[in-house]
């Protein structure tokens, strides 16, 4: 019987156009009811026929079922959006409703949501990552009390330019400022240079980093010790009298195992016993980003640790960073004016050292004021790059939304017909785009939390800095802000477009006719994407080429077979005589090691951060008095050029005989030979450096000395044996892999004196990471962001092409039906794609010429308008775009005209 | 039981009160459509009747508005049936309709009593 009921019910539902599932449900339920009724009637005594007739009559009365159902099924769901409801009191409630509705729509289109979220997540993630660095370097205040009251104090050379015009303070300058100023409640000073010292721990040297600070360092900063006390004023008076230290929290935890009885214990650094008087609080690492001393000791202890008394007496040694805390009512301007007066007094009293120096003050951040400009410029460039990447991602998401808006014309029209205002519809769509962007922001945070630490590994290990890149509330706020802005930027055009629905055509299902014509906005977006992408790709291309250039620049010495170690026995108090013995012994032992081809010493290696420039002139035609040129020089040992692989062009290397008492000799490079004696043989000619007259005994090939990108620089070498330096670099040439020698050399050193700790011990290849660091970073970052931009832009183009093809299926079907060939269809679609691509590249090239100027200073051996890059990148871009439009085009050629025409 | 043609007045009454009746019946526990129609008939002692053709559209409308929710329930040895239960929103609507109805009925009573007096 139930089947029969079903047939009857189905008959009555025929005109309703219900979905099959819905229809089946209704049939099942109502049939069950009829069956129940039938059984009841039969049980009540009716015959089966009678019961059957009654049940059917109850079903059919006046066509009630069909009419009632039609009303119900066509009643639009009472979605929150439909009625206006925009009154003031309801605003929040309706916003919440819109948000919930938006989330539902996103769940309904998981493909769209995923693509848009990932695209935006990568774009925003790149921004978050770079911002996390900007935040770490520029925005994060030091971990001290009331950092806003602190001012940096610098010497400013009134004739200087750029970063070079700012100099730290000398110790006597500092004392004068500290004791005579009116505006600061205190001025502290600290050594801005990390000092590597040797910590003699159970007769074994370990590296540690010392920070020299004034006694008031902690009290002016408002930093309370975690254990013990900080320094007393009297501990910073007589040089070397109070060997006391405050440990950093990290050192105390990691190297001393959080020893609770550490106070009062002594630690031996560079041969001097220091008493621990306190432990700094966790998280405090001083005032400089990247530099976190293991312990602090009063300035008065500097001579004891460095064995150089000049630091505390010389007015010429500018080594102290000053920071003052303003008194309660004082303003920064008053403070600066007060210090200016003091600096003029110093100018008059000490013209020799202070003639052109004037005090300058700046707010305190973790990057010292003079260097902030560089950090701002570099991170600013990166921020521009990543915002361009984000623009491309936005265009992608906007395109997706536009496609959605077209598909949702009907929905919008129905809502409008039911009384929703245009503003409400725009708001609804903006909420959806913002939700997508916020989800993208969540992805971005994940991207950044992975990418920021990954970027830190680009730092060469020999760079003695530690940088924290915390994803703190500032980064979170930035990401949130960017996400919200992104949601509005990429959502506004599709939202306005979507709400501009003509009611009648949309309800009549005529959307598809208009939609293709109306995709001009989409085309403009693609052109913009390609344009931005070509700017980024060309920039990336330039940087990658520059990186390759930098790596292939010949530094003038072999980088494959050497290892090096920087040593400073002088800091352990070695006298010159003891130091000479030490280096001789060391060279003998190292040369005896298996696998060592040769070994030598140098005052400093090329491409390090050190340089020594001295007035130098040829003896046979001296420069006019007072104007001898400054020439870079260093001291090197016998065998240095062979060990370093620097070709000797004429003459000889230094020998063991070039010792004190023997005639003074020098070796020069070809650039200096050309400068002093153009076209002549420089051998046996003499140069004057200060009081020394040196005979030129050899000429070597010119290399790179200060930077990889420098022009040929005149350079002079003196024998280290004639000009003793306590701090030297040991270079060793290996027969095989120099890496294998590192432990051997370390052992040889320990056998000689376990307390001499190598400051750097690495292969030359590792050493070269430092000079290559700028090229590496820009090349890698811009290369990676360029690749990301390409992927996003091509993905966007592909999506638009696919969409265009799907919208034109009908048109293509008509064309094919009318006899168009496969080729014609291909031409139609690919032609459209290429038109957009070429327009984009054209716009992009124009912009790029302007934009890459900014890169000029970062590029090695390649101009910012390098023709190879400017030609090849657009070709690559066009080729990839061709592929992106070919794939959907090929799909279009397979359109069956019959199927396509049925689309109507 | 002989079949009776529904009276005209019957349909008028139902129009205003049908929703209230169904919601009230679902207040205590979920019920299926046939059960609802039987209960209306029994409790009104035959005065009110909901036939299948008008009952189900009404149930679907209430469901669409979110006042009731239908769920297929299968009991052993029986065909599955769709049971309707009151949603929290339906419960609120019921309260307000019930109140409105009482006010209405009281008003009518007062008027008709005056007529009789």
Structure description:
Chain A is an alpha+beta fold and 904 residues long. In chain A, 52% of the residues lie in helices and 15% in strands. Chain A folds into four domains: 2-74, no CATH class; 147-364, no CATH class; 373-551 and 772-902, no CATH class; 562-767, no CATH class. Chain A contains 30 helices and 23 strands. A six-stranded mixed barrel of chain A has the order 4-5-10-7-9-8. In chain A, a hairpin with a 2-residue loop joins strand 8 and strand 9 (272-279). Chain A is elongated. Chain B has a single domain (14-116), classed as Winged helix-like DNA-binding domain superfamily/Winged helix DNA-binding domain (Arc Repressor Mutant, subunit A), CATH 1.10.10. Chain B has helices at residues 8-28, 33-43, 52-64, 88-116, and strands spanning 31-32, 68-73, 81-86. The model of chain B is unreliable at 1-13 (pLDDT under 50). At the A-B interface, helix 2, helix 3 and helix 4 of A face helix 2 and helix 3 of B.
